[in-house]
Design a protein that fits this description.
The protein has 361 residues and is mostly helical. It is built from 14 helices and no strands. The longest helix is centred in the last third of the chain and has 38 residues.
Length: 361
């Protein structure tokens, strides 16, 4: 009984669709027309495994040789002296506080400075090498570039690309094209592959943040596909992919020690981020989902949820751009993008832009 109640609540037509629209309506499309169904996204799971394996091959056969050509070495970090007591402490807390260090000093009869040095070496031991970060950024740069070109190829001839009100005409009875489906499944598979790789890759400081980010992205992609908000969904995804291309390019230049190119690309990234996420996203995409859809189809429960999530995302864009602008201004006036991830200057997740490949969208 409880299972039936939960299932009925999750799949409530009053939640997912405007008034007088049912799941049955979407299950019986006209001949030659296909509407989105949740089952279509099941193909993203095996594809995600394929994307992950493709990434491993790409990094080994393409990215690593490029790193060697650019003389980016893997590097062998200095290893900390084996110590079972300190290793147990490190696994629970990588940077012990003063009280813990004092206790360890008494327990092991070690000087506090020696303990601090041990933990510093141990942290460095877990940090990915520049070559690893270069390979990961090159994979992301390749994926974002390819998926952006693919998306623009199909969106360029789509009427809702030029008139966003077309996103809502005859909603939700809008046929899905093969291009839209492929784009959605590719993006979903990519983020599922990132979920897999997070548990296999070297664990980074932003592990939890990125885990939440990937889960939220997967939920939004699945949500918009399920209730056929695909037209607006494709616009949201392509806007976000656009600036990420320049970000990954800037990181590649940074790892290769092409500082001027890095600074220039970072400024280009900052400009593209501003245009795509603080101009196009709020004044075209959020506007049509919030205002145009209200006028054409009217609000319903899922409509409130979607708009709430899009507005939260816009708030994050504003915060991120403020932080990006600070780095870009330093690059323009001081001639170098600084490493805000240095141990002497603790940073929040958004400042990982150039030095750390795990980057929030």
């Amino acid at each position: 009984l409880m299972t039936s109640y939960i299932s009925a609540w999750i799949w409530s037509e009053r939640f997912w669709f405007p008034e007088n629209v049912t799941w049955a309506d979407l299950e019986r499309p006209p001949p030659g027309v296909e509407y989105p169904r949740l089952g279509h996204l099941m193909y993203a799971f095996p594809l995600a495994v394929g994307v992950f394996l493709l990434r491993l091959l790409f990094e080994r056969l393409v990215a690593k040789p490029c790193a060697h050509i650019l003389q980016i070495q893997a590097g062998v970090p200095r290893r900390a002296q084996p110590n079972d007591v300190l290793e147990r402490v490190y696994q629970s807390k990588t940077s012990p506080d003063t009280r813990q260090l004092d206790g360890l000093s008494k327990q092991l009869d070690w000087d506090v400075r020696k303990l601090q040095r041990w933990f510093r070496i141990r942290r460095n031991q877990d940090r990915p090498s520049t070559q690893i970060k270069f390979c990961e950024s090159m994979w992301r740069f390749t994926f974002y570039s390819g998926i952006f070109v693919y998306a623009m190829r199909h969106l360029w001839v789509s009427p809702w690309m030029w008139d966003v009100r077309e996103c809502w005409h005859n909603y939700p009875f809008q046929a899905i094209s093969s291009g839209q489906y492929n784009y959605y499944v590719a993006e979903l598979a990519f983020y599922w592959s990132l979920m897999f790789s997070q548990f296999i890759d070297i664990k980074r400081k932003d592990f939890v943040i990125m885990l939440v980010h990937h889960l939220a992205t997967i939920m939004l992609i699945t949500f918009s596909y399920t209730n056929n908000m695909i037209r607006a969904g494709t616009l949201v995804m392509v806007v976000h992919d656009a600036s990420d291309i320049f970000l990954e390019a800037a990181k590649l230049a940074n790892y290769a020690k092409y500082q001027r190119l890095c600074d220039g690309l970072f400024v280009v990234f900052s400009i593209s981020f501003f245009i795509s996420r603080l101009v196009i996203y709020p004044f075209w995409i959020v506007y049509t989902v919030l205002i145009d859809s209200w006028e054409i189809i009217g609000p319903y429960r899922a409509w409130w949820l979607l708009n709430g999530l899009l507005l939260v995302l816009q708030t994050l864009h504003i915060i991120w751009f403020y932080l990006i602008a600070r780095i870009a201004i330093k690059a323009i006036f001081k001639g170098k993008v600084r490493d805000y991830g240095s141990p002497k200057r603790p940073c929040i997740h958004t400042f990982y832009f150039l030095r750390f490949p795990k980057i929030t969208r």
